[in-house]
Specification:
By secondary structure, this protein is α+β, with helices and mostly antiparallel strands. The chain folds into two domains: 166 residues, Alpha-Beta Complex (Penicillin-binding protein 2a (Domain 2)), CATH 3.90.1310.10; 346 residues, DD-peptidase/beta-lactamase superfamily (Beta-lactamase, 3-Layer(aba) Sandwich), CATH 3.40.710.10. It contains 25 helices and 19 strands. The strands form six sheets. Strands 2, 3, 4, 5 and 8 form a five-stranded mixed beta sheet that branches. It has a five-stranded antiparallel beta sheet with strand order 10-9-19-18-17, with helices on both faces. A three-stranded antiparallel beta sheet has the order 1-6-7. The longest helix is centred in the N-terminal third of the chain and has 47 residues.
Amino acid sequence: MIHLWWQRKHSRRGASPRRLTKKPQPPELWQATRLWLRRSQTALFGARRQWLLGLLVVILSVLLGRAVFLQVIQQDFLQKQWEARHLRKLPVPAHRGMLMDRAGEPLAISTPVGSVWVQPAQFITISSQWQTLAQILGWSLSDLDTALAGRWQREFVYLKRHLSPTVAQQVKDLKLPGVFLQREYRRYYPLGEVTAQVLGFTNIDEVGQEGLELALNEPLTGKPGSKQIVQDKQGQIIAQIANLQAPQPGQNIRLSLDRRLQYLAYRELKAAVLNSQAKAGAAIILGIPSGEVLAMVNQPVCNPNNRERRHSEQCRNRAVTDSLEPGSTFKPFTIAAALESGRYTAKTRIDTRPGKLIVGENQILDPQNYGIIDVTTVLQKSSNVGASKIALSLPPKALWEMLNKLGFGHRPGSSFPGEEKGLLTSFSNWQPIDQASLAFGYGARVTLLQLARAYAAIGTQGQLPLIRFLPVNPDLNPDLNPDLTTFKKLSNLNPGLNPDLTTFKKLSNLNPDLNPDLTTFEKLSNLNPGLNSDLNPDLTTFEKLSNLNPNLNPNSTVMQPENARSLLNMLETVVKPGGTGYLAFLPNVRVAGKTGTTRKFIDGQYSETQYLAWFVGLVPADAPRLVMAVVIDEPQGDNYYGGKIAAPIFAKVMSDALRLLNRETE
């Protein structure tokens, strides 16, 4: 068996080599075959290479042709498409000019801030990160939803403007797609509520809304610039290409205000309103003879830096917008009309017995029977009976002309927005009681600014000054258009005045009672009995006609200098012992002034419990430099008189004000 197994094994092994053994071939045939195979492979490779090279040439030609087509033929189209997707023109905000006081101290400045805005289409894709952004902004998710409600189709939506630098940096650090920061400016008022009503404020876009911010908005507003930027598909800015236009900042303007006097008036007025539990109050300080507004304050006040708490009632400039019955502060003008008539002097005797006067069905009373007194004592004691008798002895036209020339019944022309013209009825409609009561300030309505201006005319020897919020010295505003400091150019801030009006025909639209077709003095005088009959009927120029409207001429004469000096001397006695304004007395300084106390007219009748307390004074009386007018609305308690409430405010402010001004003079 072993033998058989060995034999079979070796027989199989021997068989295989025999089956696989190839038949030997001749050497020539083998060499020919190899040569043929080599040539076939070479030919096949060459053809393949040619096909590949040809295909490559075709592809390159197509690509080159496409490149030429895109870069040459469709270059403009593609450029526009790229610009539409990636190139943006962004505005560069301009810096609003500063408001400064007369010494150059800032009263209103603009500071750079950041505002966050979004592209809703991108912002909605990161809703998972909304909570983080809302927390940084101090919002809830519902606040965020409210801000974007109905705005998802827009390209630009503000989320929150005027962020603090810290919050703006936190938003920037998030690097959220579709969330951007924009540089803007926010208005800031260093003195806050001290200058609130006179300066006014701007809106969130830095456009003046109230006060001097509105009146001087045009020169303060700069011209925004622009720049080109490149952004990626997420809207993030990649690079800035060019500054297309540089922003032009607004002009810095110095005002006539003196921040020191402004603070003094604010401090004393606020204390008086709080102590008397009054409803409101206002005070004004004017420079003499310039008519510059050195201080103008109100109570209550608003904080212009807090945009959310600006209430119209608190932000109203009562000194300019509220017209009130002036009470006994009107008596000096009745006396001025009497002096101008030539029938009265400071020593003319007036019989006030028995302390009351019956006019028709009305009775005018004095606090006591002063007997027979002179005109000076009528002012010193503030005798209603004496003032009424003087007024009734004058032609109604004479009294009306004096009040009209002093600016009552006309807007002061100060350029301050919203200034009131008050009320002065025509003398042709007066009854005797109207003329008598007007003598002590009932029946007319004036603003505190009008009253201060009229008293300034007494201090300037009969010259009614123009009210100015810009300093008279043009060198204080070298960058401001010098024409803005003249009355002619300033008048465009008062829409009632037109600097180009030079004829009676054109001027008539300032007075609706004048027929615009009437161009001669004779015809016009018939329609307006207030026209001075002494005027030359041929006067047709703006300058000559201006004395018919005291607001058209910055230095119109309202009374003779000697009468103004006499009236000033009489007003000194009011502040001396025995006068109603003795609490306004200042040691070593001559003071002239007048008190007033008025019952408020409410619901068709005069109140028995609500009063207005007035005081107007000039210092120093021998050569007035300042005039200050004060009114307190509805003081409570028994001391509601002007001499008790308003006069002390004047004394406290003027004592410090004169010390400051004298120090500068020295």
